[in-house]
User: Fold H+-translocating [NiFe] hydrogenase complex, iron-sulfur subunit CooF from Candidatus Desulfovibrio trichonymphae.
Amino acid sequence: MHEHIQVIADKCRACRRCEVACIAAHHNMTFKEAMKHRDELVSRVHVVKTDNFKASVRCHQCDNAPCCNVCPTGALQQEEGRIIVRVQFCVACKMCLAVCPYGAISLENIGMPHVDDDSETMAQRSRREVAVRCDMCQVWREQNGKKVTACMEACPARALFMIEPDGTVVELPPLEKKTAVEAAAKTF
Assistant:
């Protein structure tokens, strides 16, 4: 078993805070900044909502992952069970998107954005798409000393929980509801 996130669909409110938190964590932004850029940046988790179902979808860290097996360049690799993306090898062929049983892989543009003037830098010319998927906020967790992912932290319904490789379930405690007296006291 590999470290992965699971969702309690009955608790999910489809508020999309997990998506914004993911953008913030992977682009070194505050939550507020990520809200402003959520239409132009790619989240590695996606909320699915129908009339009868709401859930946050992400990489399931599959054993013998189909995305890794189909990748023609070796950009997607499974190392010690963890799936990693080596963006330098990704050619955006979209084969991984086609075989992922969860629809958990997206394409994101990397490199410098183009400017409106005629001068273009090498970094702007080399802007390209690469595959991205949930990486369990590995870098963000290490940089911030966190045990849980950004999406777990942001979920007001506490609909997300982590399963560690040994089977241990990691949940955040429920959010405390503020009393009307506490809320009124903060307005002064």
Notes: Helices lie at 17-26, 31-37, 66-70, 95-99, 122-125, 138-144, 150-154, 180-186. The CA atoms of residues 163 and 169 lie 5 Å apart. The mean pLDDT is 86. Residues 4-186 form one domain.
